[in-house]
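Dig into my protein:

:::
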Amino acid sequence: MPNIQFNYLYRDAANYKKFGFQIFQNPDHISQEMLEGLIKTKLIDGEYFYANDWQISDLYLIPGIVKQITPFMSLNLLNTQTNRRIHYLT
């Protein structure tokens, strides 16, 4: 069963970048195109999200930042193991 790698980025005002990803199970074998379409409907301006609202690790560089808008980068299908299930956003 291919899992999903959700790729995202932290970028601060000085343009310092830190890339991150989370891997999720895909027990229903949802296609990459379908998941990308679903995700993009939930993004702010079709591009951004708040990582903590999506239960994804924040990539803050400075402690104490409460909420940082994060760009979504891409999805990949993987053949790796994970215990983290996809939760559908409402």
